[in-house]
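Chapter summary example.
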Amino acid sequence: MKRIEQLLGMPVVSVSDGVRLGRVDGVQLDPADGRILYLQYKGDHKHQDGVIPWKGIRSIGADAVTVDGAASVLKTVPDIDVERLTPYVGDRPVMTASGTRLGTVSSYEIDELTGRVERYHIATGGLLGRLTHSEVVFPHSAIRAFGKDAIVVDDAVGATPRD
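The structure predicted for these 163 residues follows.
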């Protein structure tokens, strides 16, 4: 598994011609399914910015994301997917179904093979919590609602011991 911050900034390389297309600079996540559907990248030198459908990724390795070739790359996310995806999860408030604010999303872990978000990390305790790395970790299955203003989780997540 990789944390999102490990994925961001990785080079995107075409295996068919050995060219670096750019660097990963974002994701498009389906919040209902908890799966990344597209990786966004910032183009390098002669290459334009683009997106890679998850199925077009050959591998997410230790040092680079590889794709078979330019045919795996799109200019933008297709219109049919734009409405249901979210490009940003970090710093989103997380609260329990009973209304207790737990903190904000500080990171999440992705299965490199499936694109599924396996666990979310919540920074608790405000700025002091971030400095002391106080956090709660929970699986995607604990999410009850993934809204634009907050992520609502099962009350049991709030009972999780904090680091």
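To summarize the output: The chain has a mean pLDDT of 89.
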